[in-house]
Design goal:
Layout lengths: L2 E6 L4 E10 L1 H13 L6 E11 L6 H14 L5 E4 L3 H14 L5 E4 L2 H15 L1
Parallel strand pairs: 2-3, 3-4, 4-5
Antiparallel strand pairs: 1-2
Helix pairs in contact: 2-3
Amino acid sequence: MPITASFDHQNMRVMATARGRVTLDEIRSHLEEERQEPALAYTELLDARDAVPDFPPADSRVLVAWLRWLGERTHLGPTAVLVNSDLAFGIVRMVEMLVEDVALVKPFRDKLDAELWLDQVAGNRK
């Protein structure tokens, strides 16, 4: 699976890495793994700098629908997505805008900025 995750239950953080071509089904599988863990409410740092979205940007609506469905049933923790392409940044930014009422998802190009943002929003939830 191109998305691997580790779960830090003590600090309520998911560290995930996406590599290669990532499909919508692989994203759905990752979300299901988090749901089963259970870790959907944790903060997540998803390093997708070595990943390429393997779906057209218009199909991001499917991802948005999944996130909305999950967000209506459980609390979703904030997710920082590290990217290094304009396409990936744009897709994550579009998702950010479309789910902002049920989930915090934000693209970053710098890991430190992503970690600082996660720490900030996690602190605001306490």
